[in-house]
Amino acid sequence: MRIAIALFIGLGMASCQNTNERHPDQPTAQAAESTSAAPARPNRSPTEMADLGVVAPTTSRPPATASAASPAPPPQQAPPPSGQNDDLPMAGPTSDAGFRAPAPIGQGMFDPLDLPAANSVRTGSGAPGPDYWQQRVDYRIDATLDDEARRVTGLAHVTYHNNSPDTLTYIWLHLEQNLFKEGSDGALSGVRGSRFGFREGFEGGYRITRCSASRDGRDLNLATYDTMGRLNLPAPLEPGQTFEFDVGWSFNIAPYGADRMGTEDVEQGVVFELAQWFPAVAVYDDVYGWNTLPYLGTGEFYTNFGNFDLNITAPRDHIVVASGRLVNPGDVLTPAQAAAFATALESDETVTIRSAEEVADPASRPQGAEALTWRFRAEDVRTVAWASSESFIWDAAGVTVERAEGPARVLCQSVYPKEGLPLWADNVQMTRHTIRFYSDLLYPYPYPAATNVNGIVGGMEYPSIVFCRGRRNERGLFGVTDHEFGHQWFPMLVNTDERRHVWMDEGFNTFINIYSNRAFFNEPGEFRGSRSITGTADSMTQGQQQPIMTPTDHIWQGRLGFLGYGKPGVGLYILRESILGPERFDFAFREYVRRWAFKSPRPADFFRTMEDASGMDLAWFWRGWFLTTATLDQAIAGVDEAPDGSWVRLSLENRSDMVMPVDYAVTYADGSTDRRRLPVQAWSTTNAWTTGWNPEGKQVQSVVLDPDEAYPDQDRSNNTWTR
Q: What is this structure's pTM?
């Protein structure tokens, strides 16, 4: 596994080594090659794109085609430019007819992105500036589970820290359980019965029982608007001040809560998974002020960092797990379980804290009749979630994470009903792999525990706890486990706005999952399914295309997996493997994580950091892949050779609006081969480019563009020339 990780991040590379990320056998004496830009195809208004943190092009232009913007294919035997000798290599635009009319300044494929102005809060390099600030919210929550009524009652003491430079007169709260009311905006605007849609036959929502100032007990007005609530402050909250208030609530638990929470009836009880379950203070930031996008079902959440003291009272026969660390194991476990719990942290092998045979045994829980209160502490997290059941089998083991202050042990644990057997007996080791792999790859895992719960939720993540449904096979269970725990880095550590920018957590996570899966299954070349490069190319030609930058709740039905997960994940894979190269990409990507750990970046911060740390202008890539619905079609227009083998000229075309470098493989008549590359800048002014080289007397037998299928080319039938 260490070898697999080293292959990913280039560990062990000598610090002064001269690296060549792409095709080490590429000739070094290539003709200089200059290029052409296809204007972007915007899909959103300037106002909408500004709302996304990036300004897109404002005029539309169709893809270049032979009958419209692009020139007719050049003749196969293209003559050299006037005055050039036939025995010299040729490089440059094939003809004047290949010139692409420039887009308005700022809208061409290679033009700089029109990003929000840099300032002392968010700098031009993409790093947080000296005046960066973010709010903080701490919670003490007492909650009770009524398993028979399937109801939660809670009281939260909230401490709001105003770290902003602004005076606040009100605070907005997320009331996400109101999604499950019959008349909610999400119920009326979503597809009912879908994964994230409203389910018939259940009426949920909050009943707010208390809202008062903590200092004097004064009642506070909470104006409720669907899934948002405005809390009017009794006095202005100045910069640097804190405000403490108490809010009480209750709600009936949705049986299937938009695939983020719910209940599952199993043979030995009920599995309760609780998430987005308490009134949470919304984010107030330097970009939007109060972030008040409603909870409609698809978009997940964006919240503040803080500390949580969580006290959950549940029936005595239940096992409860939650975000953070359990701080009172002696009060809620039997002596044998408490001993196993302590042993597990120091063990690399899986320790059973409560076995399948013990679930039905009353002796497996502390003796008595009254409910027990489980106490958890979670620090510097953006929310908390929990689960409870009398049916839980409980396994655990530890894993060592190398942090700046030294090595630390993390408790990896799985709880599941017997319906999860035999597959879930191996889940702790899956979790250990994931926590170690991403800690080495990106940033040390910052939490004391990593808990996986098997229940009705297909796959969902919260700080240090995830919900995974998988029970079918090892690959499926590992895939969902690895993906959900990958979210501990995006967006739990690097805190992004999931309702506006789903790709900044799901896409990044899909990307890193590729390498973790390879390492776990020892399949270094594996890259499969619809989220492969070829699968992505196919999806890019389907109907109802939208840019990756589309806000989550505005994505066309059935396209979330492609736009939020697959396309951005594949785009980062291409950027790493085929454009920047692993060493250059990994340095920049880790720098992004380091800069924004426990902070809240926007798209412009990511784009700027990647360019700043990689040293490459990537505007053409962001515009083509993220901001528009551009597609790629590279083609061979012809091959011309000198009879004596002193030169070869390869005529190429870029027949659509996306641009990428051109990688091509040459096979000669004597069986020898050559791998060559044309940089992306070749398309800066033309979509018809001819490149040349001296084959040293050999005749070309064939040329293949993109022989490794590293790019999402829409038409590979024009990628091959054969004598």
A: 0.87
